[in-house]
Amino acid sequence: xxxxxxxxxxxxxxxxxxxxxxxxxxxxxxxxxxxxxxxxxxxxxxxxxxxxxxxxxxxxxxxxxxxxxxxxxxxxxxxxxxxxxxxxxxxxxxxxxxxxxxxxxxxxxxxxxxxxxx
Length: 118
What we know:
Elements: H1 3-23, H2 28-52, H3 57-83, H4 93-114
C-alpha cells in the first residue's frame, strides 16, 4: 500500500467515525463515548500524516506508536458502544474492520522498522 493510499484509508476511518457519532443517540453516555471515539479516530489520520514527515527512523517509530495506540483505542470505543447496547454490532462492523486493518498494518510497519538493517 502506498503512503497516499494509507493516508486515504486513515482519512476514511475518521470520516466514518464522524458519521457514526452524528448518528448516536443524544444522551450523556453516548455523548461521552462519541467524543472519545471521534478524538481517537480522527487522530489516526493526523498522526499518520506526522509519520510521513518524520525526521528520522526513531521519530517515525515514535509517531507510528501513536497511530497504533489511537487505532486500538478506536476499536475499544466501538466495542464499548456495542457492549453498552448503544449501537447494534452490524452497524459498526465495517468501521471496526477498518480500524483493525489499520492497526495490523501499523504494527507490521513498526516491526519492519525495528529490524536491524543489513
